[in-house]
């Protein structure tokens, strides 16, 4: 079965789990629809329920001990929308120009230079590395505690250019259901994002129900200073580590201490393939979920030009989620869906 390391014993365990669900005396009720109501009936939802059910059946071949039930998810594009610009950019756009005026060398970084000239395509092309560069430049020299407070406030107030609500309201409803379903079955949920920690931790608990200590992200360099008689951490304007691509497994190893058994990522930058392979190669039951952005009407339609993530899914047996076909709804129903986007918004139109 696609979606986790294919072995006959896993297929058998999943089949037994589904049969058990169907013969509990509630044949008229679809158990999957009860726990994942925003997911369409189909192989994707069935595979998730089969895997989780097998993982909790102690005498079954797909059983996973509670201490090993670690689920790790990318954030931007996996748990929430990342277009027309990643959410971490909005709170800092207005600060980049001032920071570069003080330290012109910051403007030599490709993503920062692209942001200053209003080239959204070039900013997106830099991926998570560029995102970290932009945020690092904007908060150069600032107190880490103050940055955290500012980020937490601004990410709840600055609107996404297409939906006109803050990114903190644009979590994918089906993925929130999946997080709660996993947690109800003894899985510990984590975030492993390319967005800087200063941004991701500010919303992780409120938006995703995941405490900040279970968030991994790109690290921006700091050093200790004494200000007004108190020791503070101050940002240096430099990137310490980008949590993207092959940079994700080492961060997971350091933070979690074991390979996850369930991982979620998305197409668009090949950023999650290494993390997903890392989980799939653990030597036991595992499940990889790749979100395919194929719904221009309700969200966005995009992928790598060469289709690398989808090719990796076919090769390494990731389970691909069609946003268009597998999700009955994308966001909270209160979010008004605009018309299809015409392309990446100009930075001038999304900057605060």
Strand count, sense and barrel status of the largest sheet are:
7 strands, mixed
Percentage of residues in strands: 15-25%
Radius of gyration: 21 Å
The CATH C-level name of the largest domain is: Alpha Beta
**Sheet with the most strands: spatial strand order:** 4-3-2-1-5-6-7
Low-pLDDT residue intervals, each spanning 5 or more residues: 1-28
CATH homologous superfamily placement of the largest domain: HAD superfamily/HAD-like
Q: Give the strand tally.
A: 7
Helix % is 25-40%
CATH hierarchy: architecture of the largest domain: 3-Layer(aba) Sandwich
Sequence of secondary-structure elements:
HHHEHHHHHHEHHEEHEHEHEHH
The multimeric state of the shown protein is single chain
What structural class do helix, strand and pairing data support? alpha/beta
Structure, explained:
- The protein is α/β, with parallel strands linked by helices.
- The protein has two domains: 236 residues, Rossmann fold, CATH 3.40.50; 78 residues, no CATH class.
- The protein contains 16 helices and seven strands.
- A seven-stranded mixed beta sheet has the order 4-3-2-1-5-6-7, with helices on both faces.
- The protein is globular, with a radius of gyration of 21 Å.
- It starts with 7 loop residues before the first helix and ends with a helix.
- The N terminus is likely disordered.
Tell me the layout of helices and strands:
Layout: H1 8-22, H2 31-35, H3 43-55, E1 70-73, H4 93-102, H5 110-116, H6 120-125, H7 127-138, H8 144-154, H9 173-184, E2 188-196, H10 197-200, H11 204-208, E3 215-227, E4 230-241, H12 248-256, E5 262-266, H13 273-280, E6 287-292, H14 308-316, E7 319-322, H15 323-326, H16 347-350
Helix pairs in contact: 1-3, 4-7, 5-7
